[in-house]
């Protein structure tokens, strides 16, 4: 299947209901992508992900490059075959992980020199190297290497990173076009990434520069880095305003359940976040009545399901008391069940968002969902 995106309906808010076709399947949008950092969504088998209706996963270029190595994955047939996942995969460029290693990297116009968090070994990640790795992995959607900056950052700092990001995007595009035959997934697409810090004018400029480079899709990066949610939405909207209506838009690394509809309302089609599985491993579970900290003693004798509105396997089978027991006993099953529920919950929200867009009722859905969380009533 060739890469193709179609907008089926637009909500009064600006939200879009769409369909994204990739070499490994069709994705209903707006879509939430579980994060499979090292070729696995922590705590969940690929069969469980399929049963949950996951259509696309996110893989992490930085981690897979360091271990087990992109050439090893290439020799084993690419990431889809390596991890036995039949659906679509999006890989990030490795940029965010490298830039988060503040004390272990040095950024130049050529690329980034960094030290591995595993063994301290030195590596060089250039735009070309990032694409080489992602072509070996064979993701359906690859990302350009960008410079993700800290928050807060002044206008001059953000403008410098924007300039570098645009030039790196050009180099990524040119390398990908020149080596298209080396990808283990024929038809792999490359997305540009909008930067610009928390400055609306720079976000617009970045988007326009990337549109000139003509990517099949565009991401909005550098958000959820510590800024207030309202500012994050403002920047997402400022970028989306200048992106083509016929191309998919992806906001990277967001957000909480109650925030998803806000990003969708900006005209965004794809999102990812580590929160479902990371919070699950720490005993924080998302429900229709707000968050539940399952380690709290109040749940020790609670026979109720975790979320009475949730139809996932966990909520239909186990009590809060049992889930608390597993967590307190440090049982592996605690992470498995908690992760299953949290991922199911995020996917369910996105499914309801798609349904609301289809009926032109996204604003009503969002306000009702927020009201339930604020009152704590399921």
Write a structural description.
There is one protein chain. The chain has helices at 46-51, 61-66, 70-75, 79-83, 95-100, 127-137, 155-178, 200-213, 229-240, 260-264, 275-281, 313-317, 320-328, 332-358, 362-375; strands at 4-10, 16-22, 25-29, 31-36, 56-59, 88-91, 105-107, 112-115, 122-125, 141-143, 189-194, 217-220, 249-251, 270-273, 284-287, 290-293. By secondary structure, the protein is an alpha/beta fold. The chain has two domains: 4-93 and 125-273, Queuine tRNA-ribosyltransferase-like (TIM Barrel, Alpha-Beta Barrel), CATH 3.20.20; 281-375, no CATH class. The strands form four sheets. An eight-stranded parallel β-barrel has the order 4-5-6-10-11-12-13-14, surrounded by six helices. It has a three-stranded antiparallel beta sheet with strand order 1-2-3. A hairpin with a 6-residue loop joins β8 (112-115) and β9 (122-125). The chain starts with a strand and ends with a helix.
Summarize this structure as a short list of keywords or feature phrases:
378 residues, alpha/beta, TIM Barrel, 2 domains, 3-stranded antiparallel sheet, 15 helices, 42% helix
């Amino acid at each position: 299947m060739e890469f193709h995106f179609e907008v089926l309906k637009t909500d009064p808010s600006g939200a879009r209901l769409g369909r994204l076709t990739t070499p490994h399947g069709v994705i209903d949008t707006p879509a939430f992508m579980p994060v499979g950092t090292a070729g696995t969504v922590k705590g969940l088998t690929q069969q469980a992900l399929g049963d949950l209706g996951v259509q696309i996963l996110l893989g992490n270029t930085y981690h897979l490059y360091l271990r087990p190595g992109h050439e090893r994955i290439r020799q084993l047939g690419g990431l889809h075959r390596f991890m036995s996942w039949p659906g679509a995969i999006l890989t990030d460029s490795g940029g965010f992980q490298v830039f988060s290693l503040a004390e272990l990297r040095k950024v130049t116009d050529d690329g980034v020199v960094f030290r591995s968090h595993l063994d301290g070994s030195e590596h060089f990640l250039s735009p070309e190297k990032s694409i080489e790795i992602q072509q070996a992995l064979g993701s359906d959607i690859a990302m350009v290497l960008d410079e993700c900056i800290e928050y807060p950052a002044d206008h001059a700092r953000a403008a410098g990173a924007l300039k570098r990001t645009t030039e790196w995007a050009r180099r990524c595009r040119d390398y990908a076009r020149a080596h298209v035959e080396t990808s283990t997934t024929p038809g792999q697409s490359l997305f540009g990434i909008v930067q610009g810090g928390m400055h609306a004018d720079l976000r617009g400029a970045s988007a326009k520069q990337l549109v000139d480079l003509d990517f099949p899709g565009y991401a909005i990066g550098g958000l959820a880095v510590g800024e207030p949610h309202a500012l994050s939405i403002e920047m997402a909207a400022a970028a989306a305003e200048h992106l083509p209506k016929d191309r998919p838009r992806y906001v990277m690394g967001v957000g909480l359940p109650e925030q998803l509809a806000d990003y969708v309302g900006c005209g965004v089609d794809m999102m990812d976040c580590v929160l479902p599985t990371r919070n699950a491993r720490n005993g924080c579970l998302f429900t229709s009545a707000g968050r539940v900290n399952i380690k709290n003693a109040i749940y020790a004798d609670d026979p109720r399901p975790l979320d009475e509105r949730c139809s996932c396997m966990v909520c239909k089978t186990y009590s809060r008391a049992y889930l608390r027991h597993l967590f307190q006993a440090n049982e592996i099953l605690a992470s498995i069940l908690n992760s299953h529920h949290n991922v199911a919950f995020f996917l369910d929200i996105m499914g309801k968002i798609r349904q609301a867009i289809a009926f032109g009722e996204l604003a009503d859905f969002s306000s009702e969902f927020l009201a339930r969380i604020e009152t704590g009533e399921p």
